[in-house]
Design a protein that fits this description.
The protein has about 550 residues and is of the alpha+beta class. The protein has two domains: about 325 residues, Catalase core domain (Catalase HpII,  Chain A, domain 1), CATH 2.40.180; about 70 residues, no CATH class. Helices cover about 25% and strands about 15% of the residues. It has 16 helices and 14 strands.
Length: about 550
C-alpha cells in the first residue's frame, strides 16, 4: 500500500500552477554547461517564493555582524600586472584605497541563534568603487552543497528546523544529502572543526562562484576569489564550541567589535585563482561546479590586494541589518560565468532584498554608491525618499533624448562576447568523478584532531537517523575513503558490510564513473563547443 501511495497522482510534485514537475534537479540551460535561460519559469516561481518565506529577517544568513574598512589593490595579480587579466579599476589601480563594508554571518540559524553553530559562514563584501558598487558574496569554505540553483530551496528546507517539531533534525539533513553525492565534499568540511570558525577575524572567505575577469582587449579568464586572514585560521571542535556557547551566544560579534575598538584591525589578503575560459576536459571536475575546489597546486592563489576592517558600525540596524548584497552587482572588468549557482543567485539575492527591505533598498546609505553617484531614470516606488540625480533637464526621465537627459556610457574599445550554442533543456553535469574524490582528499588532508572531531560528529548524527539513511551515508563515506566509512560505521554501530552491499543510487552514476550524457529527440547530438579564440569578438557588435 505504501508503494501504491508513493506512485499515485497525489504524490507527484507540481508547481503552484498545478503543472507536474518532471525535472526538479536542473535549470534549463543551453547545453550541459549553460548559460541558463531567462524562461526558467519553474525555477523563477520556486526561488521567488522561497525568497519570501520569512519577514522581516533574512531567510538565510539571518545572524550576522558587520564592519567598515577599505581595500587596497597591489596593481598586480601574482607576478603579472593586473591589467593582463582585468580592466576593473578597483583591481588595477595600485595603492588606491576603496571603501567597503563587510557582513559576516551564519547561514541556517535565526537572527538570535548562537554563533557557535556548526554552519558555513557568510562572507559578503561591498566595495564602493569609482565605477559603482561591486558585491562579492560567498562563504568561508570555498565550496557549497549543491551545483544547481533550482535545488537551493530544497536544501535550505532540509537543513532548517522541521516544520512540525521546529527542531533541526539530523535525519532531514542526511535524507537530502544521501541523494546528492556532490554535497559530500561540503559536509566533510562542515562536520569537521572547519564548520565552526573560532571567530570572524580568523576565518577565510571565498566567492564560491566562478566569475570571469575581462581585460581591455576583450579577453576573458575564469576566476575564483578568496580572502586569506593575516591573523591565521582558527576553528573549534564541538566540545570547545559547547564551552563557549554556555557563556556567550554572540562571541564572534563581540570579538570583532572589541578588536576594532582597541585598534587591532583585522586584515585579509585578497587572492584569485585563474583558469582559461573553456570546458577543461582534462580535469575530473567542471570548474563551474560550486561543490569543487580548484586544486591550488594547479591553480595557485595569486595575491591581488588587501582588506582592512577599521571602523565599527554606528547603528546595527541601519547598516548591518539593512545592508543588501547581490551576486549580480559587478563592475566593468568582472563578468558572469555560466556557473548555474551564480546565475540563480543573481536573481534570488537581489529579489529577496527588494522584498525584505523594499523596492528602494539601494537608496539606503549603506547600499548606495559612495565614490560615484547613481543616475537613473527610475522613479517612485515604495519608500522612495529622493530621486536619483538626473541629467541636465529634470523634466526628462527617459532615454534617449535631445533635451538634456541622461545618455549611455561609451562602449569599451574591445568588449567580451561569449559564443553560445547548444540544445535547450535541463541538464545535470556529466563530470561527477570528483564528487567522491575531493571529499576523500579532504578527509585525508585533515590532521588527527580534525579527523577525530569529524568522525565523532558524523557518528552522533548517524545514530539520530533511520537505518536506511545511515547505511546509505556510510556507503557514501566508504566510497570517499575506506577509513572514513569504516570509522563512521564503527562509531555509530552500523554494519559496514551491509552498507557496502547497497547498490548505487538510482539515476546516479556509480562513484568514479561519468554520468551518461543527455539524449535528443531530434536525433542530433549537441554541436561541438567552438574554441574560445573563435568565440571571442574583439570589436563591439554593430
Amino acid at each position: 500500500m505504501a508503494d501504491a501511495t508513493a506512485n499515485s497522482g497525489n504524490s507527484i510534485l507540481t508547481t503552484r500552477q498545478g503543472h507536474p514537475v518532471r525535472d526538479n534537479q536542473s535549470l534549463r540551460s543551453v547545453g550541459e554547461r549553460g548559460p541558463a535561460t531567462l524562461e526558467n519559469y519553474q525555477f523563477i516561481e520556486k526561488i521567488t517564493h522561497f525568497d519570501r518565506e520569512r519577514i522581516p529577517e533574512r531567510v538565510v544568513h539571518a545572524r550576522g555582524t558587520g564592519a567598515h574598512g577599505y581595500f587596497e589593490a597591489y596593481g598586480t595579480i601574482g607576478d603579472e600586472p593586473a591589467t593582463k587579466y582585468t580592466r576593473a579599476k578597483v583591481l588595477t589601480e595600485k595603492g588606491v584605497k576603496t571603501p567597503l563594508f563587510v557582513r559576516f554571518s551564519t547561514v541556517i540559524g535565526s537572527k538570535d541563534s548562537p554563533e557557535t553553530a556548526r554552519d558555513p559562514r557568510g562572507f559578503a563584501v561591498k566595495f564602493y568603487t569609482v565605477e559603482g558598487n561591486w558585491d562579492l558574496v560567498g562563504n568561508n569554505l570555498r565550496i557549497f552543497f549543491i551545483r544547481d540553483a533550482i535545488k537551493f530551496p530544497d536544501m535550505i528546507h532540509a537543513f532548517k528546523p522541521d516544520p512540525v517539531t521546529n527542531r533541526q533534525e539530523a535525519w532531514r539533513f542526511y535524507d537530502f544529502v544521501q541523494h546528492h553525492p556532490e554535497a559530500l565534499h561540503m559536509v566533510t568540511w562542515v562536520k569537521s572543526p572547519w564548520g565552526i570558525p573560532a571567530d570572524y577575524r580568523h576565518m577565510e572567505g571565498s566567492s564560491v562562484n566562478t566569475y570571469k575577469l575581462v581585460n581591455a582587449q576583450g579577453e576573458a579568464v575564469l576566476a575564483k576569489f578568496s580572502w586569506v586572514p593575516k591573523q591565521g585560521v582558527k576553528n573549534l571542535t564541538s566540545p570547545e564550541a559547547a564551552k563557549i556557547q554556555a557563556e556567550e551566544v554572540g562571541h564572534a560579534t563581540k570579538d570583532l567589535y572589541e578588536a576594532i575598538e582597541r585598534g587591532d584591525y583585522p586584515e585579509w589578503e585578497f587572492c584569485v585563482q585563474v583558469m582559461s575560459d573553456g570546458p577543461h576536459p582534462e580535469l575530473d571536475f567542471d570548474p563551474l561546479d560550486d561543490t569543487k575546489r580548484w586544486p591550488e597546486d594547479k591553480f595557485p592563489l595569486l595575491k591581488i590586494g588587501r582588506m582592512v576592517l577599521d571602523r565599527n558600525v554606528d547603528n546595527f540596524f541601519a547598516e548591518t541589518e539593512q545592508s543588501a548584497f547581490g551576486t549580480g552587482v559587478l563592475v566593468d572588468g568582472i563578468d558572469f560565468s555560466d556557473d548555474k549557482m551564480l546565475q540563480g543567485r543573481t536573481l534570488s539575492y537581489s529579489d529577496t532584498q527588494r522584498y525584505r527591505v523594499g523596492a528602494n533598498y539601494l537608496q539606503l546609505p549603506i547600499n548606495a554608491p559612495q565614490t560615484t553617484q547613481a543616475r537613473t531614470n527610475q522613479r517612485d516606488g515604495q519608500m522612495a525618499f529622493f530621486v536619483d540625480k538626473a541629467g541636465q533637464n529634470k523634466h526628462v526621465n527617459y532615454e534617449p533624448s535631445t533635451q538634456g537627459g541622461l545618455t549611455e556610457a561609451p562602449q569599451p574599445e574591445h568588449d567580451y562576447h561569449q559564443f553560445v550554442q547548444g540544445h535547450l533543456g535541463r541538464y545535470q553535469t556529466t563530470t561527477t568523478q570528483a564528487d567522491y574524490k575531493q571529499a576523500g582528499d579532504r578527509y585525508r588532508s585533515f590532521d588527527d584532531r580534525e579527523r577525530d572531531d569529524l568522525i565523532n560528529n558524523m557518528a552522533a548524527d548517524m545514530k539520530a537517523c533511520p537505518e536506511e539513511i545511515a547505511l546509505r551515508m556510510v556507503w557514501h563515506w566508504w566510497h570517499c575513503d575506506e577509513d572514513y566509512g569504516r570509522r563512521v560505521a564503527e562509531g555509530a554501530g552500523i554494519d559496514l558490510e551491509k552498507a557496502k552491499a547497497l547498490p548505487p543510487l538510482p539515476g546516479k552514476p556509480a562513484p568514479g564513473q561519468k554520468r551518461s550524457g543527455p539524449t535528443y529527440t531530434s536525433g542530433e547530438r549537441e554541436a561541438p563547443v567552438r574554441p574560445v579564440t573563435e568565440a571571442r569578438v574583439t570589436e563591439p557588435a554593430k
